[in-house]
User: What shape does this take?
Amino acid sequence: MKKSEKLIAICIIFLVLGLSLYKNSYFYINSNMYLSSKNESDKTIYHMTNVIDSQDGKSFDFNKFTGKWSLMEAFCDKDTKIVIKDKTRINKGLFYIVVLDSNYNIVAKKNEVKENEDEDIEINIPKSDKYLIRIIGEDAGGHLNIKIKGNENINHIDFFSA
Assistant: This one.
């Protein structure tokens, strides 16, 4: 094998190794690319109790949540003001609440670990569309408690659906 072929092979190995390390790193989990990606197939939750589904919200205690779950969808008209009342408390891991439009563009996001936990998420809807309320976690545990004000057209999405 020539020196140039060995160098190319080594570069390819480092590239593959680097990409796999990045995808499992803190930086990838926090990236907008990951938060807004369509794939939700790799999600796990070890323990979920005290589940309360209301017409305008969702609440439950959980432990060891990893992955993405679009737990609610809302059909909103243009120029509607939506407020997500957020009383979530995270005591372990990384955890985000993200609002996505139907093209999986981020409309709003909140890092529950770094930002003010008592701060609500306010959105002025830019276009009439379907919006997803998604949670993203990495080994997260705590209590999720959100309610949506300003829209009655909300559907809940089961954890076990694709």
